[in-house]
Amino acid sequence: MTDAKQRAATAALAHVSEGTVVGVGTGSTVAHFIDALASCKIAGAVASSEQTAARLRARGIAVLDLNATGPLPLYVDGADACDPQRRLIKGGGAALTREKIVAAASERFVCIIDPGKRVARLGGVPLPVEVIPMARELVARTIARTTGGTPVWREGVVTDNGGWILDVHGLVIDEPAALEAALDQIAGVVSVGLFARRPADVVIVGDDPPWSW
Ligand code: 5RP
């Protein structure tokens, strides 16, 4: 698995241009990407989490404020599941909100995954939802009632934004973009780990050799 993640991460370097600012996601696949990125002459990176910012700095890469960079040409991130339309479930590392922000600020989103993340249809893995802590039970009740899924509080986890995570199990996701929009409307939801309205532009799978679509 480590080899597959590393292969996907290394292949993503082909999308990096010298002198640019790169948006960088979060997770074990992205950790390989950061290590490889250290050899590129980029202007700096925008981090999607404190964990990523720390690794970027440790590799000598300048961490920049998204408010100061303008649009980014490239965002590279992993995923927990990816369907044939490059729609994703993300948030296994609880960084979904900042990941969504940096993805939205980027012209091209390159997703790097190991082969186990490819799915015919989203819904096999729990869907993370970041919530304002006081709204946890309200959001959980609303999601259970309106979707039939079972929200489980990821107890003990606090996001970089001070939010909490509900993992919604047992969802049947027929229309990912519609579900994403509906969940976004619930009071107390900060963001939803469905990346369907803004899917990846390219997905690189770390098979040997890596391939993309
Ligand atoms: C973090 C994420 C990650 O991209 C996702 O969990 C995949 O992680 P990994 O590369 O470790 O398998 O969404 O919030």
TrEMBL record:
The keyword Isomerase applies. GO terms for molecular function: ribose-5-phosphate isomerase activity. The keyword Nucleus does not apply. It catalyses: aldehydo-D-ribose 5-phosphate = D-ribulose 5-phosphate. Substrate binds at residues 26-29, 77-80, 90-93, 117. Pathway: Carbohydrate degradation; pentose phosphate pathway; D-ribose 5-phosphate from D-ribulose 5-phosphate (non-oxidative stage): step 1/1. Keywords: Isomerase. Pfam families: Rib_5-P_isom_A. It comes from the Bacteria. Its EC number is 5.3.1.6. It is an enzyme of class 5 (isomerase). Homodimer. Catalyzes the reversible conversion of ribose-5-phosphate to ribulose 5-phosphate. This is Ribose-5-phosphate isomerase A. It comes from Nannocystis punicea. The lineage of its organism: Bacteria, Pseudomonadati, Myxococcota, Polyangia, Nannocystales.
